[in-house]
Structures are given as structure tokens and as C-alpha cells.
């Protein structure tokens, strides 16, 4: 479904990726593990179009796409480590902001879609609440719903369990496995090998030579 070939990425003189390859099959859960500073977040950000790729090939569904096209294709929806919900906006406003502003979706359609996602993820009762009043697990679900608003082909999670207690960690694992049943392709960056083994079909080590 998505293949990266010979990817190169530098920050200044620092080489983060050199001839890096990655293959993700549709519907698969891929865990990305590796040392701190190894480039796991950078990899997700490149796939989301939030970070440029210096060189290499990106092949999506058998077709090579331009390195700069990842930005416009919305291939990857992002669930950030600390959720990054806008504190001054309600749950519903957090979800509808980007589709309305950047994707020309009408406000009515965006609200309908947001309400469906929030219902499915069992946080609809919180739709008018502000992020500060949500529990960790609720924030996680709202962040996931927000990532799903753009109909991404892939959902990427950056350290989804880092701030969570074991019960919430299990809840995140359950959510990821539920999404997998729906056929959603997912990439999960994590430090937690036990978590990776629980959820992933494939575990990819990034710059693991120092491990
Ligand atoms: N915008 C940037 N400018 C310069 N250097 C950067 C930038 N973003 C990341 N880096 C550097 O690139 C390297 C990889 O960072 P990245 O955040 O991808 O690692 P990581 O594997 O996700 O680490 P961690 O597990 O600690 O979150 C680090 O050395 C980091 O300092």
C-alpha cells in the first residue's frame, strides 16, 4: 500500500535517514521502535507531510508520488504524543477546525461527521467540553477522532501510551485493534516493546544500531 525507498533525511549536517526503506501493507498495524533521537517522530512527520523528505521514492498503491505530494494527499492523520488539542476550543471545535479551514468542508458536514466519530468513540457527551476538563482517555479518543476527520489512509500515533496508566494503555491498545478490524492501516511510534508486541503485525526498528 505504502512503500518508502531509499529515503534520505538530514537536519543540517546530521543524517537521520540514509537509504531507509519501509513497506506498509493495507490494514496492517506497524510499530516503529528505536532509540531516543533515532528519527521515529521525524518519520511520522514526513509521512504526514509535516516534514520534508530530502530524497528517495514514495510509492502509494503501486504509483510513485512526488515527495511533496504527501502534504496534499492527507495520507496520514496524526495523533500526537500530548494530544495537542487547542485548549480554548471545545471538543467539537477542535474536530471541525481543520476540515472547514483547509479542506473546504462545510461547517454542517464537518459537525455531522465529528458527531458520528465522537459517538463511535464514546465521547459524544463531551462534545461541548473544553480539553482541560477531559480525562486522559477522553483526550486520547478526541485526538483520535480529530485525526480521523480528514479520512486518512493511515493513522499515525506518536507515543500514544507515554503519559497513560496501565488501564488506559490497555484502552489504547483496544482502540488500535478495533481500528484494525475496520481495515484502517496504522503506524504506532512507541518506546514500549510490550505494547508494540501486543498491537503490531510488524515491528520496525529505526536506527537501532545503538540499542
Ligand atoms: N526540526 C528539527 N531541526 C533540527 N533537528 C531536528 C528537528 N527535528 C528533529 N531533529 C533531530 O532529529 C533527530 C530525530 O528526532 P526524532 O524526534 O525524530 O527522534 P525520535 O526517535 O522520535 O526520538 P524520541 O524517541 O526521543 O521521541 C534528533 O536528533 C532531533 O534532535
Task: Provide tags for this entry.
211 residues; globular; binds adenosine-5'-triphosphate
Overall number of strands: 9
State Rg: 17 Å
Distinct small molecules = adenosine-5'-triphosphate
Portion of residues in helices? 25-40%
The secondary-structure element order is EEEHEEHEHHHEHEHE
Mean pLDDT over all positions: 89
Structural class: alpha/beta
* Number of helices, where a helix is a run of at least 4 consecutive DSSP H or I residues: 7
Please state the overall shape, judged from the principal axes of the Cα atoms: globular
Which strand order does the major sheet show?
6-7-8-3-9
Beta-strand fraction estimate: 25-35%
What gap, in angstroms, lies between the N and C termini? 29 Å
Largest sheet descriptor: 5 strands, parallel
Low-pLDDT sequence parts: none
Outline:
This protein is of the alpha/beta class. The chain contains 7 helices and 9 strands.
Structural summary, described in words:
With 211 residues, this protein is of the alpha/beta class. The chain has a domain at 87-140. Helices cover 36% and strands 25% of the residues. The protein contains 7 helices and 9 strands, in the order βββαββαβαααβαβαβ. It has helices at 40-47, 69-73, 91-102, 107-120, 136-148, 166-181, 193-199; strands at 2-11, 14-24, 29-33, 55-60, 63-65, 76-79, 154-158, 185-189, 202-205. The chain has a 5-stranded parallel sheet, sandwiched between helices. A 4-stranded antiparallel sheet has the order 2-1-4-5, with no helix packed on it. β4 and β5 form a beta hairpin. α3 packs across α4 (107-120) and α3 runs parallel beside α5. Bound molecules: adenosine-5'-triphosphate.
Amino acid at each position: 500500500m505504502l512503500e518508502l525507498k531509499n529515503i534520505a533525511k538530514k537536519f543540517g549536517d546530521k543524517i537521520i535517514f540514509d537509504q531507509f526503506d519501509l513497506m506498509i501493507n493495507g490494514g496492517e498495524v506497524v510499530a516503529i521502535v528505536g532509540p531516543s533521537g533515532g528519527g521515529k517522530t521525524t518519520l511520522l512527520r514526513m509521512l504526514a507531510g509535516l516534514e520534508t523528505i530530502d530524497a528517495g521514492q514514495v510509492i502509494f498503491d503501486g504509483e510513485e508520488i512526488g515527495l511533496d505530494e504527501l502534504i496534499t494527499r492527507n495520507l496520514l492523520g496524526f495523533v500526537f504524543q500530548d494530544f495537542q488539542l487547542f485548549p480554548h476550543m471545545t471538543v467539537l471545535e477542535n474536530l471541525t477546525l481543520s476540515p472547514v479551514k483547509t479542506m473546504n468542508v462545510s461547517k454542517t458536514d464537518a459537525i455531522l461527521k465529528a458527531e458520528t466519530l465522537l459517538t463511535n468513540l464514546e465521547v459524544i457527551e463531551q462534545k461541548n467540553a473544553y480539553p482541560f476538563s477531559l480525562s486522559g482517555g477522553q483526550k486520547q479518543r478526541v485526538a483520535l477522532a480529530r485525526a480521523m476527520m480528514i479520512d486518512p489512509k493511515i493513522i499515525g500515533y506518536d507515543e500514544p501510551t507515554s503519559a497513560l496508566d496501565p488501564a488506559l494503555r490497555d484502552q489504547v491498545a483496544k482502540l488500535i485493534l478495533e481500528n484494525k478490524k475496520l481495515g484502517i492501516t496504522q503506524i504506532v511510534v512507541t518506546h514500549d516493546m510490550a505494547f508494540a508486541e501486543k498491537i503490531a503485525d510488524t515491528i520496525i526498528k529505526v536506527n537501532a544500531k545503538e540499542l
